[in-house]
Amino acid sequence: MRIDKFFSEIGKFSRKECAEKLKKGFITVNGEIVKKGEFKVDIEKDVVCYNGEVVKYKKYVYILVNKPTGVVSATEDGRDKTVVDLLPPEMKKLNLFPCGRLDKDTVGLVILTNDGVSAHNALSPKHHVEKRYYFEVADEFTDSDKLAIENGLQLADGYTTKPCKIERLNDKSGHITLTEGKYHEIKRLFGARRNKITFLERVSFSKILLGDLPRGEWRYLTEEEEKIFTNA
Ligand code: URA
């Protein structure tokens, strides 16, 4: 595979950026500086380094974005900005898609990948992946609201939700951890108790944490996080 293709396929540099890095002598293959984009690398055997650090070829890309409000969890939308639009334009060709959806007015952690099998597994209700959210509600919620939601309750469409966990921060905010992801689930759970979600932020997906990544920004998953995601 061409060295510039190698870097663009793993989403590290566009071909143009790669040409600049090559020119500056930042890229080596098996210890030798490589200057030409057409230089062929064997992805199984060759050791490719950028700036002295080994860069491994990866078939799939895993990214975490901190979705702002007003952005939709889709790959394309005629009207609204999408989570994929938060990435640099050259990453478009990686065909990344969001693993699961947050509502347009929900903020926080969304994982983007082009690994369809792992995304499918991570979303499968059989795998019970925990998704944790910070929430604020309009009216005070009582211990009986907390218990009713935690035990699972019947929504207006007849669906009975799976048990979940709520940790109260105060009368109007807390954390809720779900292992399923039904449409507007948290809003409907509080709606069923005559309350209203006024702010919702996903703060973790399994053991992958949003942390202090600023709103609207993105980062690659670490190797550890990739393992968590692909084994979910
Ligand atoms: N539950 C909701 O109601 N909305 C979300 O975006 C996620 C979970």
What features would you describe in this structure?
The chain has 232 residues and is α+β, with helices and mostly antiparallel strands. It has 3 domains: 3-54, Structural Genomics Hypothetical 15.5 Kd Protein In mrcA-pckA Intergenic Region, Chain A; 62-125 and 207-230, Alpha-Beta Plaits, CATH 3.30.70.580; 130-205, Alpha-L RNA-binding motif (Alpha-Beta Plaits, 2-Layer Sandwich), CATH 3.30.70.1560. Helices cover 21% and strands 25% of the residues. It has 6 helices and 13 strands. The strands form 2 sheets. Strands 5, 6, 7, 8, 9, 10, 11, 12 and 13 form a 9-stranded mixed sheet that branches. A hairpin with a 2-residue loop joins β1 and β2 (32-33). α1 (3-9) packs across α2. Residues 102-103, 106, 184-187, 200 line the site of uracil.
Main β sheet profile: 9 strands, mixed
User: Can you tell me the residue ranges where pLDDT is under 50 for at least 5 consecutive residues?
Assistant: none
Helix content bin: 10-25%
The 3D shape can be described as elongated
Could you tell me the number of beta strands?
13
What is the ordering of alpha helices and beta strands?
HHEEEEEEEHEHEEHEEEH
Our Rg estimate from Cα atoms comes to 21 Å
Number of discrete domains: 3
CATH class descriptor name of the largest domain: Alpha Beta
Secondary structure category = alpha+beta
CATH topology description of the largest domain: Alpha-Beta Plaits
Name the average pLDDT: 95
